[in-house]
Structures are given as C-alpha cells and as structure tokens.
C-alpha cells in the first residue's frame, strides 16, 4: 500500500482513540491542551514528507528529546556514556528509585528519567549548553529556524518537579552527575519543553533511518552507532510497555508525555504521531493505534 | 559479504570466548559437557544451510524450546495465551517470584520460566502431550527423524528442580495452571531436555524468518503472528540482558542454558550458534560474540 | 482494676468488632466457622484462670503453634536454629518470596510461613514426629488429654496449599530443609490444624510468662531464652502489623488465621482471645480490640 | 545486681568491641572522631545518675533526636501525625525509596529518615523553629544550658546530604511536606547535629520511663502516649536490626550514627551508651554489647 494510503488508514484506526485517556496532569501547562487533536507525519529517506491531521501543530516534545541528546553524546564521544548508564529495560516504573539505589546510581537505560538526566549532564559537559545544542540540532534537521523551548511549560515543569529533583539528588549521591543538581535539572526541563510539530520531529529524526546521515549529508553517527540507538529505543523507548509496543508496532520508538511518538523504520523513514491523551502505559493511545495500523498496512516493520 | 565468509568471521570472533564462563552447574548432566566446543549454522530462506565448527553435535536445547511451544500454542488458538501470560521484559531475574506474586500469577512473558510453564500447560491441554508435539515439530522441520529427548538430562533436571516446582506451585496458587503441577513439570522438563544440533535447530526455526511458513509450505503462523513472536523474542528472549543483546546483535533471539542461541533474521534466515560456557547473563558468551560479528559482517540485522 | 473486670471490659470493647472482617477463606474448612463467636481467657502465673464468652470452644490454632514449635527447638538445642532462620520483621507480606530468594533461602523470622517450615523441619529431625511432639506438649500444659489435630482442616489445608508448597520448594532449592518437601509440609499442616480453646491455649503458653517453667515445675527454656522468644514475638509475631500491634497492645503476641491471638505478659500471665473474623492485617479484629482494652484497663503491658 | 555493678559489667562486656567497626564516613566531620571512646550513663526514675567511661563527652546525637521531636509533636496534637507517617518496621534499608514511592509518600515509621523529615516538618509548623524547640527541651531536661547544635557537623551534613534531599523531594512530590524542602532539611540537619553527652541524653529521655512526666513534674505526654512511643521505638528504633536488638537487649531504644544509643526501661530509668564505631546494622557495636550485658546483669528488661 502507498504511504499516503497507509497514513489515511492509520488516521482512521486512531480516530476512536483520540481524546480517550488522560492528559499529563502533573505538568499543569500540558493539562490544558485540547485532547481532541491528532496529527501524523511520515518523512521518507527519499526526502518526501506525507502528513495527516494536525501534523503542523506544535506540541511539547518531552521525552522524545532523550533520543536526540543521546545521539549527540554518542556522536561526540562514542560509547563512553555507557559506563554511566545501562541499556536494559527497567521492567517496572515503580522500581525506578529502587533500581537506581540498588544499582549504585547507574540508571537502567538512557530513556528513563534518571538515565536521561545523566545524558543531559554529559551533554552539558560536552557543549556548555545542553538544551541549546539540542535546539540547534532540531532547527537544522527540521528546517524550522523558530523551533524553540516553551518557557511556560519549562516553568510549569520546574515547579512540579519534585520527583525529578529527588532522582537527580539520588544520582548525585552516587557521584553520577558532573554538574550541580539545579543546573542539570534546568537543562533537562528546558530540553523537554521544546515545542515541535509532527512534521518537524519526523524530519529531525530522519538521520536515525539513514544510518546516521544528517540533512546536509554529514554523518552524525556511524551506521553501527545508529543501529544501536535504534535497538535501545526498541527495548527501552516506551518504558514498561516496550514489550507491548514491540509486539503491536514492531519499530524502535520513543514516546513523550506530551502525546508524541517518534518511530524509526530503518532505511525507509521516520513516523511521528501526536495526540495528547495518554493510555495506561503513558504513551499516546491514539498514537499507538495509528502506528499499529500504519505498520500493518505499509509493511514498514523491522520484523 | 557472503554468508560463508561472515560465518568464518563469526567463528574467529568467537574463538577467544570459547570455554570462557560457566557451565550450567545446577543441572548436573549439563555440567559435564566439554566447554571447548563451538558450532554455528545459518539456514537461509532460500533453503541453503552453511555451517562451521561443531554444528552437527547435539546439545541440550533447553529454553530455546520456549519459542517453539509458544508458536504451537499461538498456531492452535491465536492470541488467547496472552490472557494468561504477558509480553513485557521482566527487568530483573531476582524479581521473578516477586513479580509473579504481585501480578497475581500472570508471568511477565512466555520466555521466563514461569511463563514457559504456562505455555507448556496450555500446549498440554491442546495436544495431550506437549513435549511429544514439540518433538514432532522439531523432527519434521529439522528433517531429522531421530531428534529426541535426552532422558538423562530430563531426570537430572527433575531432581534439581526445586525452583521450578516452587514456581509452578505459585502459578497453581493463582489458578494459572490447568494441569497438576507434577504433570506440567514433567512435560516442561522433557521439552527442555530435547537434544539437537545447530543445523537442526536453525532449520527447525526457519518458519520464523519466512512469515510462518513451514518446510512443507503450509502456514504454521500468520505473517502477523510471526512478526509478533519475533518482537517478543527481541524484547524478552535473552532474559535480563535483552537490552544488551539487542544493542550488540540487533536480532530477535532466544538463548538456552545448554549454550545454544537461536536468532531470527526476518525474510533472510535463521542463525543457530552453540558453545556451552555461559557469560554472566546466562547466555553463551562465545555465541553472543559470534552473532555480534555475524550481523556486523553480513549486515543481516533488523535495525 | 481486677483481672475479671478488665476481662469484661475487653469483651465489651470487642463486641462491635465481632463478626466484622473476613474469614480465612483460603482454607475451606475455616471458611464455614460461625464468625459471631468470641472468647477470651487469662491464665495468671499464680495458677488462676479467668474466662469470658466462648473460651471453651475449640478453634484452629494455626500459626500460634509457631511459638510452641520454636520453643521446643530452642529447648532441645539452644540458639542453633538461628543459623537457618533470622529474627527480623519482614516488612511486607508480598515480599516473602523475594526476601527468601534474595536472602539465599534464610527466612526473615520463625513466624512467617517460610521460617515456620524451617522450624518444623528441625523439630522433625529432633523428634521424628514434629506435630506429635507439639500435640504432646499442648496436652500436658493445657491439661486436656484430648487436644488433637483436626484432620478435616489438615486435609483442607493440604489441598489448598500451593503457596506453602512453593515456599517449601524454594527453601529446598537453597538446601534449607533436612527432610523432603512433602514430609515437612505434612508435619506443618498437621501442626497448624491443632484445635484448642482459649482456656487451653492460655494454659499451654503460660511457661512464656514464667521464665520458661512448665506446669510440672520443670524448665523448658532458660529465662534468657524465654525473654528472647518473647522479644521475637513482639517484633515479628503479627506479621506486617507487628508495629501497629505493639503500638496498640504493647505485648509479645502471636496471631493465627483461625482467629486466635496469644499474648504474653511476662511474670503475670498469658491472654488468649479468639474470634474468627480477621481484620485487614490478618489478625482477629475483635481479638485486637479486646487485647487493646485489656492492657489499658489491667495495666498489664511491657512498656 | 546493683546498677553500679551492672554498669561496670556492661563496660567490661563492651571493651572488646570499642573501636571495632566503621565510623559514619558519609558525614565528614563524624569521620574524624576518636573511635576508641566509650561512655555510658544510667538515669533512674528516682533521680540518681550513674556513669562509666566517657559519659560526659559530647557527641553528635543524630537520629536519637527523632524520639524527642516525635514526643514533642505528639505532646502538641496527639495522634494526628499518624495520618502522615506509619508505625511499622520497614524491613529493608534499601527499600526506603521503593516503599515511600509505593506507599504514596507515607513513610513506614517516624524513625527512618523519611518519617523523621515529616515529623520535623510538622514540628516546624507547630513551633516555627523545630530545631530550636528541640534544643530547648534538651536543655531543660538535661539541666545543661549550653547544649547546642554543632554548626560544623550541620554544615558537613548539609553538603553530603544528597540522599536526604532526594527523600525530601519525594515526600514533597506526594504532598507530604508543609514547608519547602530546603527549610525542612535545614531544620532536620540542625536537629541531628545537636551535641550531647550520655549523661545529658539519659536525663533528657527520662520522661519516657516516667509515663511522660518531665523533670519539673509537668506532663509532656500521657502515660498511654508514652507507652506507645516506647512501643514504636522497640519495633522500629534500630532500623533493620530492630528484631536483633529486641532479641539481644529487649528494650525500646533508638540509635544514631554518631554512635549513641538511648534505651528506655519503663518505670525504672533510661540508659544512654556511646561509642563511635558502628556495627553492620548502623548502631554502635560496643553500645549494643554494653546494653546486652547491662540488661542481663541488672534484669532491667521489658520481657
């Protein structure tokens, strides 16, 4: 089936799920988003982009940024980050503090919050401005010069961020932060508060489907590094529903509490879907349905 | 690179690891295997088979059987088994009893022991002889009529099987076994004690790379079911090192404490590697090195 | 206040709680007991016994037996049992399998099921008939020659005993049972199925308030051993509500799912209360209220 | 045996343990204390005080303060605090974050760090200056007007306090702190940094042995409240070795990482022992040995 048609089917499959579920209420400014929105974009390796619905409405990227900061750190210094963070699924969300404590402050993987804090901390060391470096990458790859941090979301997250502070202090107690807790959290929250559309995110992630090659033809990551980041996404990208996600969608993907999901189809392209209401697993319910249908109809899957 | 050459490279890469690590000492009859052995076989979807080393020596298949019994249950009645067993990574081996208890007797996935007991229990209901049904499938697909259960290994496992009995009784306490504990364990231990060579196992698993089509052209699983079993293998097939395995090898795979690993490359073929000494994660250390090298040189990977 | 009066006050305080809560439904023959019953007996060190309500109705002693088998093992060989079982509160009921597994098969304390199985196993080694030895002690101390095991309860428990079997097999997997699982469980279930009245149990436990001296004046335990068993009862005797129980009642005590609670007031006497309906903590709700009131009015407390 | 003699025996029993074990290295200024010191004081309800060794050397009171702040909160408003903190043993130190998270931010008991933070937070609401209120109580009851906070210890703790900050932020994320994290931790660290001698602490705690009556004859706590605080001390006062402590010593007690232990013998008096080196359970090894011997020789025990 042609991409355009698979995309329409995906939209239809998602429709009953749009608006069902919960908004991420713990971040006040995300709780006021209209839950009835849905958008999806497919950026192909050949350069074409197809979209449906609200694919040009910007939303809060949140945890999807974790893939990009990881890519930047690996690009800068290779495998070194793995001494400070693991790459195994965490199994249980409620275990996060327990695991971090039992495993001597080394987070299970770079996509749980503790791991992402470590990656941001390292990117801060490498660049002096982690969230700025991320924003610049996003602007270049999406082709949108005005991609930026939503300051209201950032402020709102910082105020509601006691769990994040708790996690960062626990990391610091094990010596796994290079910068002060406040600085790391400031960068982390700024990073998560980036606002982008499905189209922009799909374009920005295209290097993950192209063996690491950026839009200008330069190599951000080696093919091997790219494959490995995709592998970590598949096993750890959707938290404790990574198994379910792999089962239904079968693609490396990263979700965020803003309702976005980025999925990579190696050598083919990148899908980005967005709908704000979250299912029980913390990923967009409509987004999951859309990707499930898209992979079924397009046969873009890794298995 | 040609398969033959990639296979030789894999053998070379594995060589320093052969014999390093631990034999599975908790099953006495596995503890006496010569740890210096190494074999590997690639069965391609086009029907060709390439082998190196001890690829025709039979070893104890153990947990690799779990993929095949799951396939048989799904083939017989579709998705029903998922009401009794989940498909998420378990996160931590030591959590196995805790998780099973907290999650009301529903094992995390079909590849941890508790989950495999449930699958075997269901296969027993469907066939009246779970281990016999498995053996028959293995004989047909491998083309070896004398594939059989190693009675000494089975006896040895039964005697050392207090943990397995504990797990089965815990399942039974939640009503998640249809047959008496002794019967389920008898079938389970027989199933695990199957002895096969790399060549035989690679051939037997070929349907997983061929959208569910068996050697005689009939369909055991639908393409969708096949993809899904591959997805569960990728996220859960190598226990608590599934993330590491995906990172290094990037293929759906299932390991066993006999030292075998079966890996599926969709639409291309199946790799089976064997070397008895186990690394810290409970999978063959030499096998992991061989698969890592093979995917690198052959570019047979899903990412 | 005189004991008689404190006992009446205790009965009044318990009245609203009688019949409230759950019967122990997992043992079928306990589920059919009339939940409206309530009895209480105080045996004083001076030899007098005071009773109210159904103090002469026999009920299933269940876990209260664990104090007596522990006393018998300590009497026979002193502190040796502590190499195989700990004496710390377990913190969480749902952790029982996890803790046992993480702590290499050494149960937290002798009053959780895993610990009691180890004690029974040891008593079996020391006597050749653990439940018989217990029954004999109970008969002698209570002065009732017809105290006996309720065979229907025992049978009923054995059939519903998958969790107990799971626990025993896990102990066995760590080499912490001297006898076969079936034998230990047979003895354990027989022991728990003993039927006694409040009056009989209070008399049987009197040695715990008398520095270890039995009814015939002989010494079962040294004063130091007696104090120590009392201490373990206070910290571990009522499972995960030991803290709450100490807070409200302030006495060493052991409860059972049959609805009985035995409480020791050193140098003064022993209280035994019974009412079948269990509160959320698994101890008799009316029994807890009665003991709370009794200690308040009698000033028989250790703090 | 007379108190003086029992005290000498206690000192003798402790001698081989003095200096054995670890200093609390995570607080730099505690790590430089001379580990060879040992002191003990017994304050009797009749007003007499007996001492041996370094009983007049001040040390860092640390967690022993948690009993006093709890007493002050209960004195001010009764049982209300128990809606925000439990009174069950926690079972496992490493579980502290897990339990707090699973139990919705309600700490297990007031003597683990999370619980003590909640008590201090409440005392801050009740007094406007929690650590000042505590210091005043300590001065009055010990009769030493110059009892004060050791500012160097407080500073040192604050700098090393990432775990405490993590815990406080986790409490705050569940809405279980009334004041800002920084304010609560400031008060908490000041409170812990109080420096007092064995003699002073024994006198200060005497109300716990006297049914709540202070040195000036006024009632801080009711007899019932006093008994209950003693009960919580017995089950929870020495962390995950509460069972062991009850078994060996048999008294309500609270230990601190400064090496002090306060033990209450209801209606008789209070013992305070100090020696800086800590055993594996985090309580003073020599202190534990001294109390064990003292209760054996004096027969001052609750069991």
Automatic annotation (TrEMBL), chains A, B, C, D:
Q: Which family does it belong to?
A: Belongs to the glutaminase family.
Record keyword Nucleotide-binding present = no
The entry's substrate-binding residues are 63, 113, 157, 188, 239, 257
Q: Which gene is annotated as encoding this protein in its UniProt record? A: glsA
Give any GO molecular function from the UniProt entry: glutaminase activity
Q: Quaternary structure?
A: Homotetramer.
Enzyme class per UniProt: hydrolase
Q: Which Pfam families does the entry mention?
A: Glutaminase (PF04960)
Q: What is this protein called?
A: Glutaminase
Q: What is its EC number?
A: 3.5.1.2
Q: Which organism is it from?
A: Nocardioides zeicaulis
Q: What keywords tag this UniProt record?
A: Acetylation, Hydrolase
Organism taxonomic ancestry: Bacteria, Bacillati, Actinomycetota, Actinomycetes, Propionibacteriales
Q: Tell me the InterPro entries matching this sequence.
A: Beta-lactam/transpept-like, Glutaminase
Q: Which residues form a coiled coil?
A: none
Its recorded reaction(s) are: L-glutamine + H2O = L-glutamate + NH4(+)
